[in-house]
């Protein structure tokens, strides 16, 4: 039996109110959801709270789950809405976006080594500026960019999660990247 078959059986039990099946689904899907939420809100405590809220909403809305959609896509749509609401309610603080970290930047070619403190400090400043600029993007662009560029989801997966066409996802990512290049290019010139 594959994970997908196992998921399907658990989902059927979950929609019927089986708490054990729900616990198994939570266990299976919490890590990617948490990673996305944390990258969006840049706060561990808030990410945990939003993840908890996501699963509460999933439990309460279990009867509205349509099996034509993938379960993970359905969960991500709940998480995306919670993140959007979080973004609307909070006051903006600099650096509220956890899109990258030193580990993420270290994956790039030419990243400074641990023995280059000035290079690391400069990279940290660049990361902080990138976080600020990504955080300032409109929600639709920010969400598409995080899911695609940072979570490694395909544009097709992102379109299902956001409930829009693949072309709309492509456009959102394009505009987000263009805006980031514009803002970061101006910052480097200044």
Distance between the termini: 58 Å
- Percent of residues in helices comes to over 70%
Strand content: under 5%
Derived structural class: mainly alpha
Main β-sheet description: none
How many distinct helices?
9
Instruction: Tell the overall outline.
Output: globular
The overall strand count is: 0
- The whole-angstrom Rg is 18 Å
Low-confidence runs of at least 5 consecutive residues = 91-112
Give a verbal description of the structure:
- The protein is an all-alpha fold and 190 residues long.
- It is built from 9 helices and no strands.
- The chain has helices at residues 3-15, 19-41, 44-60, 71-89, 102-106, 117-135, 139-150, 155-162, 166-189.
- Helix 4 (71-89) packs across helix 8 (155-162).
- The longest helix is centred in the last third of the chain and has 24 residues, at 166-189.
- It starts with a helix and ends with a helix.
- The model is unreliable at 91-112 (pLDDT under 50).
Produce a short descriptive summary.
The protein has 190 residues and is an all-alpha fold.
């Amino acid at each position: 039996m594959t994970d997908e078959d196992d998921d399907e059986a658990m989902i059927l039990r979950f929609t019927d109110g089986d708490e054990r099946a729900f616990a198994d689904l939570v266990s299976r899907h919490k890590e990617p959801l948490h990673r996305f939420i944390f990258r969006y809100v840049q706060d561990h405590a808030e990410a945990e709270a939003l993840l908890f809220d996501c699963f509460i909403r999933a439990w309460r809305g279990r009867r509205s789950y349509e099996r034509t959609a993938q379960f993970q896509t359905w969960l991500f749509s709940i998480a995306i809405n919670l993140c959007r609401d979080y973004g609307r309610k909070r006051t903006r603080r600099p650096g509220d976006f956890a899109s990258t970290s030193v580990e993420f930047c270290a994956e790039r070619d030419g990243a400074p080594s641990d023995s280059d403190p000035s290079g690391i400090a400069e990279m940290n400043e660049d990361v902080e500026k990138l976080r600020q600029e990504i955080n300032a993007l409109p929600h639709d662009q920010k969400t598409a960019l995080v899911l695609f560029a940072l979570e490694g989801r395909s544009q097709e997966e992102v379109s299902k999660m956001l409930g829009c066409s693949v072309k709309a996802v492509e456009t959102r990512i394009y505009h987000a990247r263009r805006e980031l290049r514009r803002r970061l290019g101006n910052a480097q010139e200044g």
